[in-house]
UniProtKB/TrEMBL annotation:
First and last residue of the signal peptide: 1-20
Keyword annotations: Disulfide bond, FAD, Flavoprotein, Oxidoreductase, Signal
InterPro entries noted in UniProt: ALR/ERV (IPR039799), ERV/ALR_sulphydryl_oxid_sf (IPR036774), ERV/ALR_sulphydryl_oxidase (IPR017905)
Protein name as it appears in the record: Sulfhydryl oxidase
GO (cellular component) term, any one: mitochondrion
Gene Ontology molecular function, alphabetical: flavin adenine dinucleotide binding; flavin-dependent sulfhydryl oxidase activity
Record's catalysed reaction(s): 2 R'C(R)SH + O2 = R'C(R)S-S(R)CR' + H2O2
Length: 234
């Protein structure tokens, strides 16, 4: 009897455990299903989690580029309104043709002496200029004449000479062209001052450039060369 009672108790306990197990196993998925829903389900204003909002495409950002530097215009070299570099200095048309710098020279005697010396320098320079000058030679002489006029230490004389340069630009294509131009503008000044007019074909007779010494030296060199060749032949 006692044995049967023990068996009944054990079977009751086993049945209770089985009922508890199946009860808890059936409840777990429901609870999990309730609490596994995203928080957005409890907000009526938000869309369901399975509906994804449209994604805006990302535009490619181009790298910032530096603005191109402006290209400086290239100007011709030999004209009066040109710019060039000479002896490390930038020579511009404003520099060459600017207003005369010196004040008026009141001393008439000093003015006359200065004029004679200046014309001698100018005519001698033209007589020594190359027969076939390079572009640099032509630019150098043209620049010198323009600066000579601007820096001339007699203000009134300088302004008058600058006016002549505008009316009769320097001719620098050859020695004869430069020398003829210098004689012509000199006569323009002589005419204004009522001085004697030069014969440009004989300007070298009045202003000795020392060119005769060069010819004599060249002749001596030719004679020496010829004598040496005759000695070798003998």
């Amino acid at each position: 009897m006692a044995r049967q009672l023990s068996v009944i108790v054990m079977m009751a306990i086993a049945l209770f455990l089985c009922i508890s197990f199946f009860t808890s196993f059936g409840r777990a998925p429901a609870e999990t299903a309730v609490f596994s829903q995203p928080a957005d389900r409890f907000n009526d204003n938000l869309p369901p989690s399975d509906v994804k909002p449209p994604v805006k495409p990302v535009e490619a950002v181009e790298p910032a580029s530096r603005p191109a530097e402006p290209v400086k215009p290239v100007k011709p070299v030999l004209e009066g309104s040109t710019e060039s570099k000479l002896a490390g200095l930038e020579i511009t048309s404003d520099l060459l043709t600017g207003a005369a710098i010196a004040p008026k020279l009141e001393n008439a005697t000093l003015k006359a002496e200065l004029g004679r010396a200046a014309w001698k320098v100018l005519h001698t320079m033209m007589a020594k200029f190359p027969d076939e000058p390079s572009e640099d030679d032509q630019l150098a002489l043209k620049s010198y004449i323009q600066l000579f006029a601007r820096l001339y230490p007699c203000g009134d004389c300088a302004r008058h000479f600058q006016g002549l340069l505008k009316q009769y630009p320097p001719q620098v294509s050859s020695r004869n062209a430069a020398a003829g131009w210098a004689c012509f503008v000199h006569n323009q000044v002589n005419e204004r001052l009522e001085h004697e007019i030069f014969d440009c074909n004989k300007i070298g007779d009045f202003y000795d450039c020392g060119c005769g010494d060069d010819k004599e030296k060249k002749g001596d060199e030719e004679k020496t060369t010829a004598t040496g060749e005759l000695k070798k032949e003998g």
